[in-house]
């Protein structure tokens, strides 16, 4: 008979050992989709007091786990079935790894003897090796008595150093194998200090401060590594003591409020081009920052980089002052060694930034005042912005092309880690998974601002949102297409152009099917009213926000990344 591992002289098995290992390490939530061979694992977890949230697609469950990891510094757990379920979850695991979010994808797998000889088992796949290129690490458990150490290893790998995604393979026969309960209990591992502090070297701190003290035109860039570190007060103290302008990367918005006087967000291209000393705090010089190169950046600018990962340094451009350590420790060391007035930005630099900000604020005001029927992105987002202006509790999830680019600029963030978006990959499909993860983890309301195309990738999770009655409001920016909805099929015929979606789609009826509140709005006032009502209700809602199909630009702000044919097609 199988009983719990705590009863001596009894037996336990892989299912119980896995659940016990999670509980021992304070993991309280699993996101997943059940089926062979993990159904009983979810059942048992639930019976043991772990919250299990069942999804409609593994990718969304994985995204919920990943964002939980980002928000809590503890790995989010995603549970899937073998082969296809695993592969569906793998996209989320890869995205988590790319974004440095700690998560563990746990998948059941088929009989290893058959899989390895490729004899055609049910859902046959060598999952561990398939996961390796897309994860920080991939492990397989081959004996039930190894489950404890495997869970410990997976957790530590996910959260220590640079956080990332870990794959843990649980073959069906390991789950079902019974062993002596006492042996099992003794095999479990309670992890001590899963993400040890990594203190920066004192000389690295001095080198960085020396560079900053000699700067005329310093600039601080805050990335989501800084947000992840949860060192908000120390970080603010540091930035304020430097008096330097700062730029938040999209998910670092709100670490210092977007209306902070030192924010240079609305003078972004100017400060990138002109800064002479740039301090990167938990941000990589990847495509989102033009790889640190001209024309966006001055070739003579010197860089300071704070990161937990030593091999990030010099990855795109030479770094004059690397500071390797966890952001919390590194920023604390900087604060201990800096006084107000140590860094003296040239007043002309600050004036020039202030002038740009004023000019750009005027341009933005003009865009926001654009005619409101039919709505465009700006008039609609103005309404959303006004409703969210005094709601620091609300999480904002955001994906799409124009919907992402424009919302990022229009919607100010006033609290840390409240903006969750397409991130390092610029990926579509994170919307409902992130929204559910944030709502479950925090209990706070979530507003997911979604392009109509982006929403489609995870739209079926509306049922999940309604089943768990989560305080999630989805706003679908419906312009009837990818980028925009007015392209034509250049060959004539009845098929739509590749970018076109259904203009007449009533997305609000999808949520009504599951008992949520649907709204169909065509003006900023009705949008604001619907959003207020939905937030007040703290219940699932979807606002189908109809905007002009002719609004939006191809590839949003990434036009330069979208190669276009030099030769016109027939019929163009
Ligand atoms: P963004 O997209 O916001 O610019 P990135 O994801 O490019 O941010 O960069 C985040 C960086 O932060 C990564 O290089 C990662 O190694 C680093 N990082 C993540 N967590 C920490 C931490 N706790 N301490 C120090 N660095 C961190
Ligand atoms: Mg669209």
UniProtKB/TrEMBL annotation:
Domain Thiamine pyrophosphate enzyme N-terminal TPP-binding, chain residue ranges per copy: 14-129
Sorted UniProt keywords: Decarboxylase, Lyase, Magnesium, Metal-binding, Nucleotide-binding, Thiamine pyrophosphate
InterPro entries found in the cross-reference section: DHS-like_NAD/FAD-binding_dom, HACL1-like, Oxalyl-CoA_decarboxylase, THDP-binding, Thiamin_PyroP_enz_cen_dom, Thiamin_PyroP_enz_TPP-bd_dom, TPP_enzyme_TPP-bd
Catalytic activity: oxalyl-CoA + H(+) = formyl-CoA + CO2
Stretches assigned to the Thiamine pyrophosphate enzyme central domain: 205-333
Family named by the database record: Belongs to the TPP enzyme family.
Entry protein name: Oxalyl-CoA decarboxylase
Organism: Paraburkholderia solisilvae
Gene: oxc_1
């Amino acid at each position: 008979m199988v009983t719990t591992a705590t009863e001596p002289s009894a037996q336990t098995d892989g299912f119980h050992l896995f659940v016990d290992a999670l509980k021992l390490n304070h993991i309280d939530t699993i996101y997943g989709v059940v089926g062979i061979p993990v159904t009983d694992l979810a059942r048992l977890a639930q019976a043991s007091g772990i919250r299990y949230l069942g999804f409609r697609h593994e990718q969304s469950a994985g995204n919920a786990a990943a964002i939980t990891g980002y928000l809590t510094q503890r790995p989010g757990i995603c549970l899937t079935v073998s082969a296809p379920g695993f592969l569906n979850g793998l996209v989320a695991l890869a995205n988590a790894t790319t974004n440095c979010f700690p998560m563990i994808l746990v998948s059941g797998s088929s009989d290893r003897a058959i899989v390895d000889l490729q004899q055609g088992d049910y859902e046959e796949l060598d999952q561990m090796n398939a996961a390796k290129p897309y994860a920080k690490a991939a492990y397989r458990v081959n004996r039930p008595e190894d489950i404890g150490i495997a869970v410990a290893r997976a957790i530590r790998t996910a959260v220590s150093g640079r956080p990332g995604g870990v794959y843990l393979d649980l073959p069906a026969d390991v789950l079902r194998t019974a062993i002596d309960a006492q042996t099992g209990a003794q095999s479990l591992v309670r992890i001590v200090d899963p993400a040890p502090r990594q203190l920066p070297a004192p000389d690295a701190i001095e080198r960085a401060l020396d560079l900053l003290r000699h700067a005329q035109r310093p600039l601080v860039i805050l990335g989501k590594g800084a947000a992840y570190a949860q060192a908000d007060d120390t970080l603010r103290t540091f930035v304020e003591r430097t008096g330097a302008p700062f730029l938040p990367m999209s998910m670092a918005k709100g670490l210092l409020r977007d209306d902070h006087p030192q924010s240079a967000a609305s003078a972004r291209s100017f400060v990138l081009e002109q800064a002479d000393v740039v301090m990167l705090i938990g941000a990589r010089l990847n495509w989102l920052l033009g790889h640190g190169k001209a024309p966006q950046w001055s070739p003579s600018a010197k860089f300071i980089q704070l990161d937990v990962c030593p091999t990030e340094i010099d990855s795109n451009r030479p770094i004059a002052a690397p500071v390797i350590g966890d952001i919390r420790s590194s920023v604390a060391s900087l604060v201990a060694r800096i006084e107000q007035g140590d860094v003296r930005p040239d007043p002309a630099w600050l004036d020039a930034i202030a002038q740009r900000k004023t000019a750009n604020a005027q341009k933005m005001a003009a865009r926001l005042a654009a005619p409101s029927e039919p709505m465009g992105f700006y008039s609609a987002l103005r309404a959303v912005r006004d409703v969210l202006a005094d709601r620091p509790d609300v999480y904002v999830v955001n994906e799409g092309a124009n919907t992402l680019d424009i919302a990022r600029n229009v919607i100010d963030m006033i609290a840390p880690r409240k903006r969750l978006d397409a991130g390092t990959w610029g990926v579509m499909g994170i919307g409902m998974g992130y929204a559910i993860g944030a709502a479950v983890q925090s209990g706070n309301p979530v507003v997911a601002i979604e392009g109509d195309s982006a929403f489609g990738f995870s739209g079926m999770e509306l049922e999940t949102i309604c089943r768990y009655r989560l305080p999630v409001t989805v706003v679908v920016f419906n312009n009837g297409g990818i980028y925009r909805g007015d392209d034509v099929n250049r060959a004539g015929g009845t098929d739509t152009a590749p970018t076109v979606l259904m203009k007449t789609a009533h997305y609000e009826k999808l949520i009504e099917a599951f008992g949520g509140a649907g709204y169909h709005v065509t003006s900023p006032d009705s949008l604001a009213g619907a959003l207020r009502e939905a937030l007040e209700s703290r219940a699932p809602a979807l606002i189908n926000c109809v905007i002009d199909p002719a609004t939006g630009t191809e590839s949003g702000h990434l036009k330069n990344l979208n190669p276009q044919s030099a030769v016109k097609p027939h019929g163009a």
